[in-house]
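Structure first, sequence second, as always.
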């Protein structure tokens, strides 16, 4: 079988190298070999090679990309945004299959080869979001790996019938069980956490819970999640998204929570929210906690921002955490590469022999330069096949 030789590239440590790709995997990394019969040589132009970027927290089913401008006049509370979204979803006619496809193609153009998306499941939308994402996952299966989280955005227990729909979503093909603010939304934290973990146990999956709750309230919910993770032996299978409570002023309490998270191998997803206290990247990494990152919502009824560029998201996290030294900025790069891969339990990921050849080339000198400069991605490969070039994908969006 002919090989692909990606030559004249630089590795993150600055080493000049060539990557030989065989059967969709990285065969060797080192000096450029002589080409064999039928081999394809690709000149990387001295660009920096990074492993495919990982978007570990998205909401693909409800982006408004390509639907024109939405005038946002929603109230300030979380519940205002949740309630407004249910209304606007009907009024605007958001098609989860079409809209998710548009965002996947945008993500590909920015170098993301893996996406975890939270997909709404409630008594109004039913499984339409899940069905739309299953179709998108199949449509772009050769270009991007997509994990689907069944997500009770409107509450799991407060809306009768949602728990049963969540089980249907898992049977239909969702990969992960989601949850949301056990205290603030469902007002029954123990029952909420028990229900989420029971579903995960039933289907043999992981858990990814949105936790917006602040301060001690969020800390209480986090302790329940940690306790359930330990009790069920689910270490390494749980992600807490946002975790704003880790930004509370009570440093001693936060330190206790961080220690417990590390012991339970619970990953934290932070998108560097500028409007709330956020977890400290340096504190969590020093404790050995896995950190990942995502865009959260992009151009939706919650807010108008976002472009699916995980290098830009790394910059936002860096600014929010005062990451200035190159080694500090590289912590943010890790969040959108290996940290995301670890949180999503990806197999054979990275720039190492034997890994899948998911590679993005960036015209930058170093990983920190890539975050600061964020040029169009020169080349994006998925399992050794080119899927985007110079910021343009080779697949179309609807």
């Amino acid at each position: 079988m002919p090989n692909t030789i990606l030559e004249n590239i630089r590795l993150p440590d600055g080493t000049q190298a060539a990557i030989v790709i065989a059967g969709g995997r990285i065969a060797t990394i080192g000096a450029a070999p002589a080409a064999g019969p039928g081999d394809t040589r690709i000149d990387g132009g001295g660009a920096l090679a990074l492993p495919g970027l990982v978007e570990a927290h998205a909401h693909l089913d409800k982006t408004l990309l390509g639907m024109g401008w939405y005038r946002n006049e929603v109230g300030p509370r979380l519940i205002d945004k949740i309630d407004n979204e249910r209304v606007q979803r009907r009024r605007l006619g958001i098609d989860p299959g079409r809209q998710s496809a548009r965002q996947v193609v945008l993500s590909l153009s920015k170098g993301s080869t893996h996406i975890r998306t939270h997909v709404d499941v409630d008594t109004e939308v039913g499984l339409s979001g899940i069905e739309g994402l299953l179709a998108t996952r199949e449509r772009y299966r050769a270009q991007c790996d997509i994990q689907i989280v069944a997500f009770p955005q409107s509450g799991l227990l407060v809306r009768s019938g949602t728990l049963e729909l969540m089980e249907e979503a898992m049977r239909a093909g969702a990969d992960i069980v989601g949850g949301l603010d056990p205290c603030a939304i469902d007002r029954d934290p123990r029952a909420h956490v028990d229900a989420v973990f029971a579903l995960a146990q039933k289907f043999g999956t992981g858990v990814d819970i949105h936790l917006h709750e602040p301060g001690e309230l969020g800390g209480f919910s986090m302790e329940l999640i940690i306790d359930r993770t330990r009790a069920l032996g689910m270490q390494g299978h749980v992600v807490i998204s946002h975790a704003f409570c880790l930004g509370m002023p009570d440093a001693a309490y936060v330190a206790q929570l961080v220690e417990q998270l590390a012991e339970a191998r619970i990953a934290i997803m932070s998108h560097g929210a500028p409007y709330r206290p956020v977890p400290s990247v340096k504190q969590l990494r020093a404790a050995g906690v896995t950190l990942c990152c995502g865009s959260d919502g992009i151009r939706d009824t919650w807010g108008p921002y976002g472009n699916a560029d995980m290098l830009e998201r790394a910059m936002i996290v860096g600014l929010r955490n005062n990451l200035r030294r190159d080694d500090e900025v590289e912590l943010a790069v890790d969040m959108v590469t290996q940290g995301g891969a670890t949180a999503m339990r990806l197999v054979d990921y990275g720039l190492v022999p034997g890994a899948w050849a998911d590679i993005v080339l960036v015209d930058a000198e170093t990983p920190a330069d890539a975050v600061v400069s964020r040029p169009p991605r020169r080349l994006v490969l998925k399992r050794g096949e080119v899927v985007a070039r110079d910021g343009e994908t080779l697949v179309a969006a609807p």
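Margin note: DSSP finds twelve helices and 16 strands in the chain.
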